[in-house]
Amino acid sequence: MGYIAAQRVPEICQKLFCYCGCDYTDEHASLLDCFTSDHGVDCIYCQGEAVMAYKMSRKGSSVEEIQKAIDLNWGPKYPFFEQPSDQIKKYWKTRLWAKGNGPTAAEKHNDETPLYDPFTGAQEKNSKPMGKAEDCCGKKDVKDPANAKGSKEPANAKDAKDAKGSKAATTTKQ
After folding, report:
1. For residues 91 and 43, what is the distance between their CA atoms, to the nearest angstrom?
2. Is the pLDDT of residue 91 over 90?
3. Which of 23, 45, 52, 61 could cross-link with 85 by S-S, CB 3.0 to 4.6 Å?
4. CA distance 41 to 49
5. Does residue 32 or residue 147 have the better pLDDT?
């Protein structure tokens, strides 16, 4: 559903930040970047943000309202607030609802913040914390986010094997 949502409102997704951590792991600058490859396939952040943006735009919400809703819902789950990337710093300076040099107090990392489920409309505390090892870009071994920028090196031997296999598969498809 996330890919369809992003396809329907790309001009909005381009103005949203993805809070899964892909700014470090994949050098993404906006939510739209998550849907230009297979990155968003298994990520609750990417899919959830895109579906939420699509639903809000269908109800007539402005880009400013959508940014605020996504920032306040997904922002507290961002795994790298301690060392924000250049991409999120740029986003904070240019977003429409709270321009500045950092997150608002409501966006600070907090695993206790209830998460809005754009698929059901429910808002409740997650049974598992987000922004941790089991999440999309959080599952990549990024102990020092500063070293993750531009790094395409696999985090462990299994990832290295998987990367070789996917690189070979990509090469044979051409």
Report:
1. 21
2. yes
3. 23
4. 13
5. 32
Domain count, the chain: 1
| Mean pLDDT along residues 117-135 | 54
Q: Which helix (H) or strand (E) holds 123?
A: strand 123-124
Taking only the tens place, the pLDDT of each residue in 36-61 is: 999 999 899 999 999 999 999 999 99
Number of alpha helices (DSSP H) and beta strands (DSSP E) in the chain: 8, 2
Higher pLDDT, 125 or 112: 112
Going by C-alpha positions, the residue among 43, 2, 42 that lies closest to residue 20 is 43
**CA distance from start to end of the chain:** 27
- What is the distance, to the nearest Å, from the Cα of residue 102 to the centroid of all Cα atoms in its chain? 17
Q: Reply yes or no on whether the pLDDT at 71 is more than 90.
A: yes
CA-closest candidate to residue 136, choices 41, 16, 4: 41
Neighbours of 38 (CB within 10 A): 10
Q: Residue 166 is which amino acid?
A: S
- ∠ Cα 87 17 50 (to 5°): 150
